[in-house]
Amino acid sequence: MQNEKFITNSIDNSELTFNDFKTIVMNDYKIAYESRQASVLGRREVLTGKAKFGIFGDGKEVPQVAMAKAFKNGDWRSGYYRDQTFAFATGISTIKEFFAQLYANPTNGADPFSGGRQMNCHFATKSINEDGTWNDLTKIKNCSSDISPTGGQMARLVGLAYASKLFRNNKELDYLKHFSVNGNEVAFGTIGNASTSEGVFFEAINAAGVLQIPMAISIWDDAYGISVPAKYQTTKEDISEVLKGFQRNADQPGYEIYKVKGWDYPALCEVYEKAIEVCREEHVPVLIHVTELTQPQGHSTSGSHERYKSKDRLTWESEYDCLLKMREWMLDSAIATEEEITEVEKKAKVFVRNAQKEAWNEFLDSIKPEQKTVIDLIGGLAKHQPELAKIAAQLAATADAQRREVFSAARKAIRLSAKFDTEERTALLTWYQDQEALSFDRYNSKLHTNGIESPGKIAVIDAEYDELSKMVDGREVLNACFNENFARDQRLVAFGEDLGNIGDVNQGFAGLQARFGELRVTDTGIREMTIMGQGIGLAMRGLKPIAEIQYLDYLIFALNVLSDDLASLSYRTKGIQKAPVIVRTRGHRLEGVWHSGSPISMLLGSLRGLHLCVPRNMTQAAGMYNTLFRADEPAVVIECLNGYRLKEKLPNNIGDFTVPLGKAEVLEKGSDITVVSYGSTLRLVQEAAEELANFGISVEIVDPQTLLPFDLNKVCAASLAKTNKLLVVDEDVPGGASAYILQKVLEDQNGYFTLDGKPRTLCAKAHRPPFGSDGDYFSKPSVDDIIETIYEMMHETNPGQFPAIY
């Protein structure tokens, strides 16, 4: 059986007999050879049309077996899509599961890594249960969910390793027994040589060197990035040469850097044992540059490497294939005979072929009952409509029908029978409607964890005030909120540029590093991608990180990490992993091109899977933080840049009151027009409403408070039913977040039917705001703009009462 493997962790060879040693080596070769056969057969399955696409780890088998020997329970992997052999050797994946993922089988348990949602070689282990509660992560070999962007795994890797440092050095975390054993866990990362050219790689390497964390990064170097050779990728064509300056010495901390040939099995085993011991014990990052690797089948199933590799290179690759070289070493060292090795290879081929067949048959078997049902139902309809018999016959003739073909046939038959109200049509329609929930679960569920600690299940507690409640600066409200929560929950940590020593550029964290220490309130370098990755990794290991990005404009530097990794994590694992990061930033109005950002539509389009909080003031922000600190889903909170020194009343229960996410609030009641806005522009709308009242115009102001989710109770639609007019005021570009709000109110909430005139949007100009107060006035909505736009809308309805201004 695939799971019946010998232990692959490091073994003291001095205690081994020759037979023990031979057994271990032969088992390693068996795993590597099985993996190669999985690659060969997997490619064939794609080229024959059974799978859509394939990408495999052929050529990297031997170093991955060696790496697996050093990987222990509690350790973490953050790798890329060539690591199948490592997954097999550690028991993270079986061969059958590998093929089930290749076929995108959504049946529960078939692809335990992604539920059929990710392409092959994208692995993950189960960190959480269906209800969102944590498993004991110290007792399993952990694998963070893979993503396809090459290099994207590096950001998260920093956080996974940094968690071990916090667990080892912050004794207040000792009670978290399910997450760490004294910080002994190593975070293993893998990356291809070409992807080391990416900025996130260099950010991560530098961050790990500064932080001195147990991060072990392996670089699989086969000298190419698809068709592009190393001379176009890397200075000196050698990444470890480039990184020599990171090597530690007696006076300066840094890395331990190792270089080893990828076909040299004994050397690989020795290097990995030594490197990981240093990494684990000393909390020193290590880099293992594995050179002279090959890629026998080319980059992927989309093409052949014979197109771009020279004959000499191809000849060299055939001679230095790591499996061939390991085989030669075993023979030369008299570890095994030709006959013994051949027998292992023969059995491996049969085993892999059987696993592939079983995975394919199970995939088809999950669909065949649906296929038969639809054929029978359409056949019944054909008694009334003979032309439908052709649809049933075509579906019956499709030997390996996939679910889309079954459903497409059903839907076509439903459409064509719309004029026939028969029992047979009702039966088909009922079947289809019953399938919708199953289809949603297979393909669309778990965008959020939706567990017992989801934000919607956090108790709503109102802010409390009395006659002694003080008026303070908005920044002091936030500071008091953070202070109370950090004292309450030891899992909370915060980090970012200028956050620690000076307490952030707007003083929300002032004095908190001195109180809670540098491990919990920490300055970072200017490295937005790995600040986000630091948060993701810490959150995946049970901590509650606040990852600060100084200005919303700078969040764009980390948007790839947030979108590719964090936002999709729950969905792409079908709810077996979570990372409740809180991304804290500030934006909207200030001064100039780079500090006035409101690119909300960019976030709305990129970050489904996160909550997007847009509080109008710091009290509302504090209430949202209180909710999120108690919840287990990721969020972005955008504080208003021009609100830190505005006066607000400090709640008596500053660390406890909560603001529910998705609950819109009516700030001012009115009868003539509904204005929906958020963040900094709300104050302008309120000011405009005062002047409009002098014209006899009554404005109802709605603050959605969060854009993801948006107004779950349909407050906007209820307001619109009363006023029949809608204006959206927004600092994003025209057609940006305002278009999103219109879609929600007019389409989702059916607000369109209560309009008596054209809905309007008032947005910023299509460019970023120029520097200075005048630049702000002429490029973003002003009080004057709001007044005149609303007045014009009233003029269109009643020109007699509201004559044209211009």
UniProtKB/TrEMBL annotation:
Keyword Oxidoreductase in record: yes
Q: Does the keyword Lipid biosynthesis apply?
A: no
Listed PANTHER family: 2-OXOISOVALERATE DEHYDROGENASE SUBUNIT BETA, MITOCHONDRIAL (PTHR42980:SF1), 2-OXOISOVALERATE DEHYDROGENASE SUBUNIT BETA-RELATED (PTHR42980)
Q: What is its EC number?
A: 1.2.4.4
| UniProt cross-references to InterPro entries, sorted A to Z | DH_E1, THDP-binding, Transketo_C/PFOR_II, Transketolase-like_Pyr-bd, Transketolase_C
Question: Which Pfam families does this entry report, sorted A to Z?
Answer: E1_dh, Transket_pyr, Transketolase_C
What function does the entry list? Answer: E1 component of the 2-oxoglutarate dehydrogenase (OGDH) complex which catalyzes the decarboxylation of 2-oxoglutarate, the first step in the conversion of 2-oxoglutarate to succinyl-CoA and CO(2).
Q: Which domain of life is it from?
A: Bacteria
Q: Which UniProt keywords apply?
A: Oxidoreductase, Thiamine pyrophosphate
Instruction: Supply the CDD domains for this chain.
Output: TPP_E1_PDC_ADC_BCADC
The molecule here is called 3-methyl-2-oxobutanoate dehydrogenase (2-methylpropanoyl-transferring)
Enumerate the spans annotated as Transketolase-like pyrimidine-binding domain: 472-646
Q: Which cofactor does it need?
A: thiamine diphosphate
Kindly report, in one word, the top-level EC class recorded for this enzyme: oxidoreductase
Q: What is the lineage of its organism?
A: Bacteria, Pseudomonadati, Bacteroidota, Sphingobacteriia, Sphingobacteriales
